[in-house]
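Example for tutorial group B:
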């Protein structure tokens, strides 16, 4: 047992050192490269209907085996017709704008999302056009995902029908975003729910005390700090910290009650998660399907436009994004959802 204790202590030290080193290196890189690199913005729009038609034609042509000269000539003629530009979309036909959001702990893509939403709102027609968001996120920091959900609220407040599709996971902050939608479509084994708030941090006070290391923590305000990593935590601090978690959970449930009143919150707001098949009878989702099937089905009736905003990030931000991704994976391995 002593060996396991020492090994666990060594592992905690190593992880702490590596994370600190990565953060320090990221800060230095940002300071060195931020002044040299300028962000480049780009809004990309892709007509998905044409993509599906091209796929259909390509596969169809390969499956056909011409047996006569006439068939070969007709096939050659069709290929020439395929090179002609497609007719312009019908301006009176309803359009669907497609967004994709892949979230990490800090919801880093929210900056792209807010630009994509703003672009759509300049062109979208109330009560005629729609938006589909392909969402993948296991949640993260409350303010970050609160802002991400607020971006989707902008679409709904503008009178646009909003659908969210979930192929793998929309849990915690991810489900906070999904709940804004008029309709949630999930794959049968997609993970949804995890309606709760969690926080954890190590405390090194006893370890430091054994090594005769003092930590001075000075605050102005009774609850400026509740729980700390290095100082001695108090029952009052723990109670206040728990109160703050409970308040965040209450806000989470109130938000869900506003946009998804069909939920029985006493049943689903327990922090548990469910697979799509289980989530359907609980009203956490409205239908079972993959995003691929949903988009292909809609493409037969609407014009689909995928909107993607990209900004070339300075080297420092790209490095910090890689650090965030690594931390996100570590947290999920430790059991955080």
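The residue assignment follows.
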């Amino acid at each position: 047992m002593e060996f396991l204790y020492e090994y666990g202590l060594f592992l905690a030290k190593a992880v702490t050192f590596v994370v600190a080193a990565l953060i320090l290196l990221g800060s230095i890189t940002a300071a060195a490269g931020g002044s040299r690199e300028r962000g480049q913005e780009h809004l990309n729009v892709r007509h998905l209907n044409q993509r599906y038609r091209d796929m259909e034609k390509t596969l169809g042509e390969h499956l056909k085996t011409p047996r006569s000269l006439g068939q070969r000539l007709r096939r050659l003629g069709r290929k020439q017709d395929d090179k002609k530009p497609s007719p312009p979309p019908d301006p009176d036909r309803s359009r669907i704008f497609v967004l994709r959001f892949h979230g990490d702990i800090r919801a880093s893509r929210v900056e792209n999302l807010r630009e994509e939403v703003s672009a759509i709102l300049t062109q979208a027609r109330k009560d005629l056009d729609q938006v589909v968001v392909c969402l993948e996120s296991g949640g993260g920091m409350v303010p970050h995902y609160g802002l991400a959900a607020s971006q989707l609220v902008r679409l709904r407040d503008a009178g646009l029908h909003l659908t969210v599709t979930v192929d793998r996971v929309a849990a915690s902050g991810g489900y906070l975003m999904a709940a804004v939608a008029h309709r949630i479509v999930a794959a049968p084994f997609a993970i949804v729910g995890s309606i709760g708030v969690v926080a954890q941090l190590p405390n090194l006070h006893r370890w430091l005390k054994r090594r005769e290391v003092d930590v001075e923590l000075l605050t102005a305000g009774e609850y400026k700090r509740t729980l700390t990593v290095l100082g001695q935590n108090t029952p009052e601090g723990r109670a206040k910290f728990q109160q703050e978690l409970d308040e965040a959970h209450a806000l989470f449930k109130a938000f869900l009650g506003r946009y998804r009143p069909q939920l029985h919150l006493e049943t689903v707001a327990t922090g548990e998660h469910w697979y799509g098949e289980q989530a359907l009878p609980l009203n956490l989702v409205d239908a079972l399907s993959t995003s691929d099937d949903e988009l292909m089905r809609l493409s037969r009736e609407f014009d689909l436009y995928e909107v993607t905003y990209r900004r070339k990030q300075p080297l420092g931000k790209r490095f910090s994004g890689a650090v965030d991704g690594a931390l996100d994976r570590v947290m999920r391995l430790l059991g955080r959802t």
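Confidence is low (pLDDT under 50) at residues 1-5, 34-38, 331-337. Compare this with the pattern of hydrophobic and polar residues in the output above.
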